[in-house]
Amino acid sequence: MRKLLLAGALALLAVTAVALLALTAALQGEPTVALYQPPAVADVARALTLLRTHDPRRARPGAVSAVQVDERDLELLFNHAALRRLDAYTAVSLQRGVAIVRSSVPVPRNPFGRWLNVELRLLETGGLPVIDAVHVGRLPLPAALAERALPWLARRAGVQTEVEVAAEVVRRVHFMPQRLAVVYAWRDDSAERMLGALVPEGDQARLRAYYDHLVQVVARQGAGWTVSLAPLVGPMFELARQRSAITPADAAAENRAALVVLTLFVNGRGVGALLPAARAWPRPRPLRVTLAGRDDFPRHLLISAALAAEGTGPLSRAIGAYKEVADAQGGSGFSWNDMAANRAGTRLGEWAVAQPQRLQAALARGVKDADLMPPLEDLPEFLPEAEFRQRYGSVGAPAYETMLAEIDRRVDALAVFR
Description:
Structural class: alpha+beta
Number of helices: 16
């Protein structure tokens, strides 16, 4: 009996020692992907071009198409997903026939290391790529084990349907130096399934609650067809406050849902644009929504807020700058007023996640237009490209950054952020 106990103790010690060695090798003190370069105006322009060209809602089922994506754009896509779900940073290296994906994920404080650094080496095949090698920190893992673990990881991350649809649609992935090409063909229901999968069931129910509430809020407005954004924001965030009082951990998710529903409404769209099942929901009466007397400000503010609330504050700022630069080049001209609406919306979205219940309390008690938008009267707008460059240089130039800093100072002074 004594020998049996001794053998058991030794086995337990051996297992513990192996586990400790594995943790020591897997966890590291520093991230291997340490820097994240936020998206720039040119990145947004390329992304919008790709989306317009390869929008699945306009695709002909069965038609074979191909898209090329460079290393930078792929990295931005991965980082958008990784930062949103894991607060992780990702880097991509594309070579001929090979792709290397590295990701650094922060872990809770422990004696072994603050970072989980993962590196995947993918090999091109005649169809989908396969995993050739995996390293977690300094610990190599069998590629076959990683391949078998992928379905489980997809389920845990809530992206199982997206992965399944991608496997059905994608015919081949071709790796080239700093670029990849994807050959694909949508099936009859692929786009609908992909769009439906992007919104988890819990979020679908949450969106329905806010959408139904918006129908009631809109019905209570006057007989005219124009309404200010402020009387819509208050009741929507009062509902968020009430629901968050029941489940405080969901406060940020409640705010996201309220912002998404408001954003789609002021842009003349229903939730059906995001969630196919919502096309059968009752629709609110169409209204022209204004902020500070203009109907473009609510769109600028809420789109930026919704993007920032999804964890894409840098993307929100880049999209705002892209829109104004594009206007200066041939549209209505560069507008610092619009930039102010973008920056106020980005701050609103960031607070919706970082200070969710504090923001709910500030908005639910009722707001005015001046609580949502900073003073604008002295901000230049309608600037042609030549005048914009003469006065401010380019995006990121000192004069441009000085104006942004002044706008941010005014945004910080808004009542809802104090």
